[in-house]
Amino acid sequence: MVKVSVVIPVYNVENYLRDCLDSIVNQTLRDIEIICIDDGSPDNSIDILNEYAAKDKRMTVIQQPNGGHAVATNRGMDMAKGKYLFLMDSDDILDVHALEHAYEKAEEKNVDFVLFKAMNYDDPTDSYYETEVYSMDKIAKKVGENVFNYHDIGSLMFEASVTPWSKLYNREFIMNNNIRFPEGLIFEDNVFFYDALFSAKRIYFLKEFLFIRRWYATSSTKAGDQRFLNSIDVINLMIDVFKKHGEYETYKKQLFDKKVSTGLMRYNKIKEEFKDVYYDTLRADFLKILDDPVEYNDLISTVKYSNKKIFEQVIISENHDEFDLLRSAYSEEMDNQNEKREYFNNLLNEDFKNLERIDSDYKNAYFNKIKSNFTDILMNKKSFGKIYQFLYRNNKKRFERVIISDSYDEFNALNQKDKIQNDVNRLNSQIRNKQKQYNKAKAEADELLSSNSWKLTKILRRN
To answer: pTM value?
Structure first.
């Protein structure tokens, strides 16, 4: 069995294909097979593939009618025979040490997949740059050198790169869990990744930049053409994956926030000629939620305020021109509200900073001055309504504590009590998460201990 199967779906990338293939055939890990699926390219991609295959016996070239990236990748996975699986994009570049380093870690740690970092490359300007989505520093800091699974990173999973080319997968793991790319769509990586993430019991983060992600105007995820409609179907399929693995209830807020914000983001980026059809499709998708009382309540009760407004604006706007006008008016209103919010919160923050800085002999006098100002605001219903609504939650709490406290010492005691309660709440939340992890681990252990294979190997464990 070869160590790694590299699958490369190819479509219309003659300008970048040689860079890709050079980075694969020159890998320091030599025991690999390279499966290239030409997906009906109209350019000279097939000629370049055949040229490289003639020089390297590890390469297999398959030519098929155009079916899409997912069809080509799934076919390549079905052909693969290696212990591990690497899914390459034909317009990108892999560090020549990548497969060797990832393979060694996968073997050492005995994991379902290895995750690693990627660097962005802007082709028109010939410049390199990092982004959090491909560096994944938050996840790296969270997991350190530990083997982990999705329970260990929680909502940080939404910070992970979903791209298959930043992972080395155990092929048997992928096949046994029937993890596939949904065909006929772009942005399909989301569905594949979360299915793999939830199925994996052991993951390792190799904190090296081993991949170059090339950006250029005609790449599928930047084209802004009618294929952007696929993102609406993909987020629904992604939600289905969360339901399949029993994680919908836990992460429905993040899912619906992503659904709404991604819907608006693609709308803003799609070319003008496709806005009508995109908006109509998005609105029809949102109206389905409106018709489902349970799903509507899940969305409206969990998403952040800005996404709730987007959802409502899509529902009440019958076409994209109406939606644009509504968004424009809302944007002006929000600019004005944000200015007020920043102004009032800065005033309160300055008051409380001064209260902390002032000498202890004068704290009570300064506190009484703050309380007098707050009481004046409270007594004036018009002023109170205008100011209180713009305060952040922590400042609302501090405002309330000032009003009910007779002295600085009492105010300070309430602050300390609230801090202790927040610490208790945080600890209780951690305890609940640990209990959930324990219950899952116990269920898996019980299942193993009751299995026939465990009973049959009992003799091997006598010592």
So the answer is: 0.72
